[in-house]
Structures are given as structure tokens and as C-alpha cells.
């Protein structure tokens, strides 16, 4: 089965370089004390929650440590000084590490899973980056609002029926519809279904399988995961079919996406070379963007809603800001979203505690010494454990576990060393969809805060599910409608959909920012 050759024939993904080869002084790096022969550091490990296991080890072993499972040794790094050094792009680059490499069968040389040397990375990056420029984002705003209104209609129905709402499920509906609609002009009809869309089920299946591949001995994987591999093949076939249908429909219609991501993928030539993406690469990019474009944002929104429900004073402050900034505007404009500074801080603080893509891997471009202390050979790699970087006491204080959005006031951000907040990764391979995710999530949190009081089930204890990404498992909230403001004609409590045309509406009041051809439109100064 072509889908698994990279991982199953050798037990290791292509490009894998063992820690023993890469780190000459590996022995100096702390490891758990009770290592079993052949099996490694598996005592007490929860194979469904490898990230949270690693967080536990990090607390015991310090800012750099290693774990071994079934013959594979991993080096983890989370100390601020070490991570800042790994962010040096002249000496380090993205490593397509185990978890990401396991997604290669489905996402191939798509933007997220491409090896640095693959020419399709630069090609796709240059062709697609303008799809995340400010102008493009402004064009998506109306569609994002429309999808958010489908969510509030859905929640209103639950509220009327006296039911609680399924936060991760509904956030996934929302973010899938948003990326599908803005990027590909497609409607999955998620809010009209009782169960997750089969695309989501297939996606969760492939992500879970990619994670599981790391938790079984490589050579035994074909045997131990035979049934799971069969299901995975069916899931991948479903993803491919969905995407092929979507692309075929667009080709038949002869474009018509008004320059959305799919139009760019199909028709845009590289500005310098004139090259276009191949049909096979388009398939990989569409899958990449549909998956990367919703799963992590859904988790980020879900964690933020969890913390808002848990901290009524924070929610009240955020709501007061929304009322003040948006006033009675039924449909906030593009530029009114970035003005929700406190709501954005709530989001940042949620991403600090639970960065929903919780690790990224870095490899040495040449022989070097990490932070002047740990020699690494060219190709040696380490996993940055973002949730622990974001809890590093020297940076975030002894109360780093406490949820406090004021850690992101401009003064507090300025006072922190660089490279200490990395939910979107780092360098040239950092998240291309960062602004998209932040705009969408801030807008949706604003709309929900304005419309509802949210309360948590007092019995709920945060349980974080892992499938390469993170999600607050089983989170349900009780809603109460905020009293309507009669004098405003209930304008904000019931968005006047018809009043504000829908898709691709630009806000004339917002002047377009001049774009420098030499500057990548998705890389901000904060990266
Ligand atoms: C809160 C939401 C999001 C988070 C936390 C997040 C996080 C990340 C991280 C950590 C990386 C770097 C991975 C690595 O170094 O291996 C990444 C890359 C990427 N993300 Fe996101 N992401 C989010 C939303 C999005 C959205 C909305 C899109 C698309 C619309 C997207 C598309 C991508 C792509 C294509 C890459 C690969 C970029 C490259 O290598 O050139 N992400 N993301």
C-alpha cells in the first residue's frame, strides 16, 4: 500500500536521523530513570496522550530531555534559551519530524508536509501567500461572518430547546465551513448534520493513525496496525475523493472562485518562473488547507470558550469591550475585529496554555552547538514542546499555569524575550494561516460573547484529547441569551444577515495597505 511505504517498510520515515547519530553527547541529555530494554521509556506512558506524557517528563527532567520508545529516541526542548537558539534560521530549519512525516501519505509535498528541499514548497508558498494578504483577508471577512451566523442560529436552536452545546463539535463545524467556503467556494453543510461530516471523520481517522504509528514498534506496525491501516486507507480514499470532486467542479465551472485559494492553486503561475502547481500537487494542497485550516482553529476557539466560561470576570471584560467597540453594528466590519484587543488577549492566553499544534521540529542545517552546550551534527533534530515553552517559569513566572490574558498587554509582550510565544511555529515554515485563524477566531469570540452568557458544567474537568492536535474533550456549555437592547432594535442580538451583502464584500472605509513585492505577505514582525 503506497500510503504507508515511507513509514512501514523501514519502521522509520524517510529523512529520519536517529538521536544517537545526530547528538554526539546524547548521554548528557537527561532521560527518564526506568528505561526498559527494547521497549524504552514506556512505563506509565499513555499512548493516547503522548504530548501530555512528554509535558510530565519535561517537568521532571528539565529544559532538554530525551525519550525512547521502541528503538526510536526523541530529543525534546522547551527551555526558552534553547528554543530561541533553535529559532535561528541561519543554523536551523523545519524538520519534517515523525508525526508530520506520518502524514506524508495523505498530504505528500503539500505545504505543511513538504521537505525543505522539495521545489514544490517554494512554488506553493509563493503562489499561495498572497491568498493570506490583508486584501485577501478582507475579502474573506463577509464569508466568515455568514458562517458564524450559521453557528449562532444553531446555538439559538439548542438554547430554545434547553440543551447544552457541544463546543469542540460545533467549533469544528464552524471552522471547516469557513475554510471550505473562503478557500474553495464549497459548502459541507456541517450545521445541517447531526453527526460530523464524513470528511471530518476521515480526517480525524488519518490524524489519529499518524499519531498511533509513533506508539508501536516500527517493524511490527504492519502486523499490529493491520486493521487500523485498512481503515486509514479508506479514510485517505475518502479525503481524496472529496477533494477530487471539489476540484473537478471548479474546473467544470471554469474558475469562478473570484481568486480564492483554489483558483490560485489551479491557475496562478509563479511570478518569476511562470510555473504552476501540478494536478497531483493541487490535490495535496487542497487536503492540507482543508485540514490545517480548520482543526487547530477549532481547538483554539474551544479552549478559549472553556476559559471564558471558567472565568466570568474575564468574560465580562471581554464582553464590555465588544459592546464598546462594535456598539450596535449588526455586522462588524473587517477593521472592527482587530480592535478587539482584549478578546485577542484571551485567545493568545488560551493558545499559550494549549497551543493546538503543540510541537514543531527543528533540524541543524550544519554541525553546530545548541545554545553553546549541546553539539548537534547536520540533520540532527529536536522537538520543541510548545506548551512547556509557554509555561517556562523564568519567562512566564511561577504562576504560569494560571489563565491571565493580561500577560499579553503590549507592555508585557515587549518585556518578554523574543521566541517565547510560538503557537504558530517559527521562521520560513511558520503558519501561513496565522492571520486567517486569528481574524476568524477573534470575530467568532466577539459574536458569541455579545450574544450569550456562557456557563460551564460545574462537574467538568478539562480533559485534553490528542490527535497530533489538541482539543478539550467533552466540553459542553450552557448558554443564556443576553437581554436584547430594545433601543437598538435588537440589532446586535440578532444579526441582520440580509442587511449586509454576503461574500467578498469589502469595506470601503478601510484603505488598502500598499504591498511590497519583496515582503512575504504572511510574515509579520512578530514572527
Ligand atoms: C489557531 C490556529 C492554528 C495554529 C495553532 C497553527 C499552527 C501551525 C504551526 C505550529 C505550524 C508550523 C508547523 C511546523 O513547523 O512543522 C503551522 C504551519 C502551517 N499552517 Fe497553521 N495553524 C493554525 C491555523 C492555520 C490555518 C487557518 C491555516 C490555513 C488556512 C493553516 C495552514 C498552515 C500551513 C499550510 C502550514 C505549513 C506552512 C509551511 O510550511 O509553509 N494553519 N501551523
**How would you classify the helix and strand content by structural class?**
alpha+beta
Q: Strand order within the widest sheet?
A: 1-2-8-5-3
Distance between the first and last residues' Cα: 39 Å
Low-pLDDT ranges: 1-13, 486-518
Count up the helices.
Answer: 22
- CATH homologous superfamily placement: Cytochrome P450
- Based on Cα principal axes, name the global outline: globular
Number of strands: 12
- What does the main sheet amount to? 5 strands, mixed
Which percent range describes the beta-strand content? Answer: 5-15%
Helix content: 40-55%
The radius of gyration over CA amounts to 23 Å
Total domain modules? 1
Mean pLDDT: 87
Please name the CATH topology.
Cytochrome p450
CATH classification class = Mainly Alpha
| Named CATH architecture | Orthogonal Bundle
Bound molecules: protoporphyrin IX containing FE
Describe this structure in words.
The longest helix has 27 residues, at 134-160. With 527 residues, this protein is an alpha+beta fold. The chain has one domain: Orthogonal Bundle (Cytochrome p450). It contains 22 helices and twelve strands. It is globular, with a radius of gyration of 23 Å. The protein is 45% helix and 10% strand. A hairpin with a 2-residue loop joins strand 1 (64-69) and strand 2. The protein has helices at residues 5-8, 19-22, 50-61, 80-86, 98-101, 104-107, 119-128, 134-160, 167-184, 198-212, 221-224, 226-252, 261-267, 279-292, 295-310, 312-326, 334-337, 341-353, 386-389, 393-396, 410-415, 434-451, and strands at 64-69, 72-77, 92-94, 165-166, 359-364, 368-370, 374-376, 381-385, 452-456, 464-467, 469-472, 476-481. The chain has a five-stranded mixed beta sheet with strand order 1-2-8-5-3. A three-stranded antiparallel beta sheet has the order 4-12-9. Helix 10 packs across helix 12 (226-252) and helix 16 (312-326) packs across helix 22 (434-451). Residues 94, 100, 111-112, 125, 179, 288-289, 292-293, 296-297, 300, 355-357, 360, 423-425, 429-433, 436-437 line the site of protoporphyrin IX containing FE.
